[in-house]
Amino acid sequence: MNELKKYHEIPIGGTVITKDVVQPKTGGWRMGEKPMVNLDKCVNCLICWLDCPDTAVLAEGTDFFGFEYDYCKGCALCAEVCPTDAIVMVPDDQEVPEYGRMLNGGPHEN
């Protein structure tokens, strides 16, 4: 029987989620707030995308796209790590534009 590898024997890597992986929609567990982004302030650093524990931050290539509220639990980590304060948390019952995107103070559609 083969022994399991120790942590230092495993190659360095990350988690890759392919499109055919089923992910549970956890947005119903949200903690009372959800993120919204001001695209005028966003610099596309994608730190929010890297730090989101729920893969709720959407990116298109190297550009921030928005939030997938079906998966967002409202932990506010994205807002905490945003270096330009482009992401703010708003009450969960507040109406927001699709994907939580604002530009020039108003909804931004793609």
Automatic annotation (TrEMBL):
Keywords: 4Fe-4S, Iron, Iron-sulfur, Metal-binding, Pyruvate, Repeat
Record PANTHER family: PYRUVATE SYNTHASE SUBUNIT PORD
Cofactor: [4Fe-4S] cluster
Protein name as it appears in the record: Pyruvate ferredoxin oxidoreductase, delta subunit
Pfam families: Fer4_21
NCBIfam families in the cross-refs: PorD_KorD
Domain of life according to the entry: Bacteria
Organism: Gracilimonas mengyeensis
Residue ranges constituting the 4Fe-4S ferredoxin-type domain according to the UniProt record: 33-62, 63-92
PROSITE patterns: 4FE4S_FER_1, 4FE4S_FER_2
GO function terms (MF aspect): 4 iron, 4 sulfur cluster binding; metal ion binding; oxidoreductase activity, acting on the aldehyde or oxo group of donors, iron-sulfur protein as acceptor
